[in-house]
Amino acid sequence: MSTKSEPPKLFGEKRVISERQKKIGQLRKMGVDPYPSTFNRTHTIKEAVAEFERLKSRSDKSHDLLTEKLSVAGRIIARRGMGKASFLDIKDNSGQIQCFARQNVMKGQYEILSYLDIGDIVGVEGPVMATRKGETSVEVTGLIVLTKALRPLPDKWSGLKDVEIRYRQKYLDLISNPKALSNATLRPKIVSSIREFMHQRDFIEVETPILVPVAAGAQAKPFETHHNSLNRNLYLRIATELYLKKLIVGGFEKVFEIGKLFRNEGLDQYHNPEFTTMECYEAYTDYNDVMRLLEDLVLHIITKVSASDILPAIDGIRPEINLKPPWPRLDLRQTIIERVGFDFCEHRDTESLKSVMNDLNIYVEPSASWGRLLDKVISDKIEPSLIQPHFLVDYPVEMSPLAKRKLGSEGIVERFEAFVLGSELANAFSELNDPLDQRERFEEQERLRVQFSDDELDRLDEDFLIAIEHGMPPTGGLGLGIDRLVMLIAGEESIREILLFPQLRN
Fold first, then answer.
1. The whole model's pTM is what?
2. Beta carbons within 10 angstroms of residue 2's beta carbon
3. Which of 68, 134, 179, 390 is the most buried (most CB within 10 A)?
């Protein structure tokens, strides 16, 4: 005797998806399209609430007030009640509101509510009123299913706790985590305020190539690709510097670019292989002018987005940060002498510096160049103490192949780095405009690349050298890390918290 086989049991998310698929089929049988093309939304939720508040302000009553009929739309984030009355909480980008649905008001549409789930997107029509408990609500006279969600949202109370899921499925983080949404909306405000400031200072915004024949302008390993039609290898840019300085040669006196850079480097809380910077160059200025420009720029940004020049303390993350100018200027050489205990000018060869670092228990990369070794000293012993905004100024020439030499200081260039909370925020130079010196430094970088097998050292760009041989005026240049700036203002410790789609390991 044969028996009819039973379908396999479904568990967890698969069961939820199966049940929701059945509801889609049932809605379609009722003549309801669960994915219509459009909806006539008359108000955002914030605007609908404001409409009711205006009505209340003109009356001494509250419970009997009704606005005109309006329509809002949003994602269902909670539902309560059954029988002849139900409550839905829906949320859009501006806020959330309760929707009060009654069978006798909705008539034939009320049955649709039994096929709705948390995560579905609906359009709701009706006046805004206050319930007996005084909660501002939409009295639902009509409801349209706009999107039937197949997968469930994270639990409302526990939220999305798995950090990997939060980063890999950022859309879920934005739905369930108000801080993630706040960070996402903060970033464009910061970028907009940067543009506003630069335009006020008469800088011209430009766009330069992302695919470049030589990955020059910084010390970093590039990403490589191949262009089939040209039959040549190209690189994703690691900096915008050299192209922007070509524009200075061409007669632009104030120029800037906001854009992505790409560096084939490791991942950590401060680094992502693709990141955003603002680079600017101004003729007839030096790094002192650029320091003042950066101070003014950061002050403009912070007062625009938070109406204060002080970032409040956050327990476990940061103390109060005062961004008001002027920021302290620390001479790099003197700071290392005072805080680390040696003078790098007395240890200008690689083996001598390695010996000092071993005595200080600082990790020494076996094949690192002198400049990379000193950078390790700075990052280990100096940067972590720079919590409030500081400038470190006047770097050795070995670390700065694109910066102008400092008059009267042998082996030192006019360069600064800006630090806040122990992290680099910006890097800037008095730009080297001596074409002979620049060629020698590029050639030295190429020699060191071979000697130390270091593919991060800067590269010789012949086209750039030809450009400055035509004459580049004295120029101050700045590179500002926008991701780091957003982290600072948002109070986040990881770059992944402020990127919408960070790169992640497999």
1. 0.89
2. 4
3. 390
